Every structure is written in structure tokens, then in C-alpha cells.
Amino acid sequence: MVERRRTRQVKVGGVRVGGDAPISIQSMTKVDTSDVKAVVAQVKRLEAAGCEIIRVAIKDLDDAAAVKDIKKNIHIPIVCDIHFNYKLALKCIKSGADKIRLNPGNMRNKDEITQVVKAAKKAGIPIRIGLNSGSVFARLQPAAINQKVSLPSALIGSALAYIKIFEDLDFRDIIVSLKASDVDTTVEAYRKMARLCDYPMHLGVTASGSYDQGVIKSSIGLGALLLDGIGDTVRVSLTADPAEEVIAAKRILSSVGLRSFGPDVISCPTCGRCQVDLSSIVKQVEDGVKDLGQKFKGIRIAVMGCEVNGPGEAKDADIGIAFGRASGVIFKKGKIVKKVDVNNAVKELLKLL
């Protein structure tokens, strides 16, 4: 059982982040924010996939103004991603943003930061201090670079400097992220920062790549931190459909035992003993249970290709099926309950489930 790091708790719209709240799942829209119709359509699709907080890119005042209309048509909190121009943050707050993300790598004027913090405090919304390895390291002075300041140290130093500004203004509705595009830097930065503050943390490996590479990087990085008890909200950043980010995040959280979203389907990797098309059968089972949801969360379903793996090696599954040449057996907790033909095996399994 993972023992989570103790943190403050903040509210992003109706979603609690930190403390004893479940680790929330985030994604980001990938269409022009000023195109309200396109944004709303994408967010609704992400809501259906399980997204709980959505972030939008704010590149100009038209984007910031659109936040008001977007918010009217979605059901999850909206976070505005701000770079370079503090006035965009102020406009988003007026438009009803549920959270603001500021990047210390390109928002460095103390007076401007102060204006944003005061506006957020008045509106009662949190701010994410969102560090990005590329922008933070790029602004280091040559002397610091020559002294070989490590990237994790640069991320942490920048975060602490920002936090001091916020705390001096008596503002503590803060979420921190320290993202790098490589796993080891990301994990080192979060682990060290976790010992230096009690603010909730948004986890992610930034610019992680295409679907295959990004899922692997994110699974390793986020998985390592989550098993350490670090992390209060997550985004899996992929160069892919944002719905894939949400699905991957759900699978990571389920795999480390921190959340459950429905039945857990396990299956053997197959070998020369398998005499059925197990890949196709597993897909049928996954499709059959994907909409069962919370009522069946935590239930383990095993799909095994031979008598070695099932029921024997899958006897701890709540229910499962193991195949021979043209037939299979359904078992519960290792006890065989029914013999079935391979062609109607999935139907019989789902019926018993």
C-alpha cells in the first residue's frame, strides 16, 4: 500500500487536489482556444474518457476571453496556461478560470507576478507554479552554466523563488510542477522538492514524445514518483490524441494501486502452448467490461491461453478463463465453475461476471 506524501489541499473548481483527495487526471486541449465550439467538443470527449481537469493554451486576449464561454459548456474545471504576458492571466481570471498556470522560466517580473497573485487571491483560485526544464535552464546566467548547475537544482531554485513571492503575499493556494523531458531529471527534481515544501504536486514528463515513447517515459517517471507517495494530480503528455493521455493516466494510477476505474483485466503473454487467438479474445473482454465502471472497480479478470497459466497462475483472480484447443474453462478464485466452447467463451464469462 502506497503511503502518500502529506500536502496542503487546494480546490480547482469542484476538484480537490492534495491532502487525502484522489489523484486527479488532467489533459490539455489541442485546438485553438478561441474556437469555443472546437474546444468544447474536445473537452466533452475528454470528460467521457475520464479527464477531471482540463488546461487550455492562452496565447492572446481572444483566447482569454473565450474561457468564459468555454466554461459555460463543460463540466470540469478549466486551467489557463500562461506564458510571457501577465495580462493574459488577469483576463483569464476575469473570464472565470478555475486555476492559472504560470511558467517561472518566462514570467520573471516581480511586479507582474504580484498582480496575478493578488487577482487570483481575490478570485479564490489557485496557481500552479509550472516549471519546464527547457525554459528554466535557458535563462540561467552564463556563470551559473559554467558552474554546472544541475537541471534539477535549477528547477527547484526557480520554484522556491516563486513560492517566496507568493508566500510574502500570504498566498498559499499553490500547486507545483517540475517537468523535464527526461525521466531521471524529472524524478530527481520532484523527489528533492517534495522534501522542501508541503504544496501539492502536479506530475508529468514534458515533451515525452509520440504515443509509444511517451507512454513508456511517463509510466516510468510517474510510476516511480507515485510509488514514493509523491503526486496529487497528473498529466501524461503525448504527441497524440488527448484522450490517449487520459486513458494512459488511468492505467498508470490503476497499476500502482492508487485508483481503480473498473475491472482489471490481466492476460498471459502467450507461448507455444496457446492454441487460440488470445489477443482477439482479450480485446473482446476489454470491450465488454469497459463501461462497467465503478460498480465493478477492483475486480480482477484473468484471460489465460493454457492450463499452466489458468487457473493455476491466475488463481487469485476473481474470475477468469483458460483455454485448451477448442474449449475453455471459466474459474472463480481458482475453482473451475464451467466448461465453454471457444466461440462463446467471452459471452459466458461476461454473463457470469
What's this entry about, in short?
The chain has 353 residues and is an alpha/beta fold.
As a percent range, the share of strand residues is 15-25%
Domain unit count: 2
Structural class by secondary-structure content: alpha/beta
CATH fold group of the largest domain: TIM Barrel
In helices, the fraction of residues equals: 25-40%
In CATH, what is the class of the largest domain?
Answer: Alpha Beta
In total, the number of strands is 15
Query: How far is it from the N-terminal to the C-terminal residue, by CA?
Result: 27 Å
Q: What are the secondary-structure elements, in order, as H or E? A: EEEHEHEHEHEHHHEHEHEHEHEEEEH
The shape is: elongated
Query: On the 0-100 scale, what is the average pLDDT?
Result: 92
Rg (CA only): 23 Å
CATH architecture of the largest domain: Alpha-Beta Barrel
